[in-house]
Amino acid sequence: MATVGLGVYESYQCAKAVRLALKNGYTHVDSARLYGNETQVGEGIKASGVERSKLFITSKVYATDFNDTESAVVDSVNNLKYGMEGKRGPLGPSDYYDLYLLHSPHGGKQKRLKAYRGLLEARKKGLVKSVGVSNYGPHHIEEIRQAGLEMPVVNQLELHPLDQQRPIVEYCKKNNIVLQAYTPLIRFDFSGDRNGVIQSVADKLQKSAAQVLVRWSLQHGFVPLPKSEHEERIKTNADVYGWEIPAEEMARLDALDLGDDGALNWVPVHEP
Ligand SMILES: NC(=O)c1ccc[n+]([C@@H]2O[C@H](COP(=O)([O-])OP(=O)(O)OC[C@H]3O[C@@H](n4cnc5c(N)ncnc54)[C@H](OP(=O)(O)O)[C@@H]3O)[C@@H](O)[C@H]2O)c1
Question: How far is ligand 1, taken at its centre, from the CA of residue 129, in Å?
Answer without folding.
Answer: 25
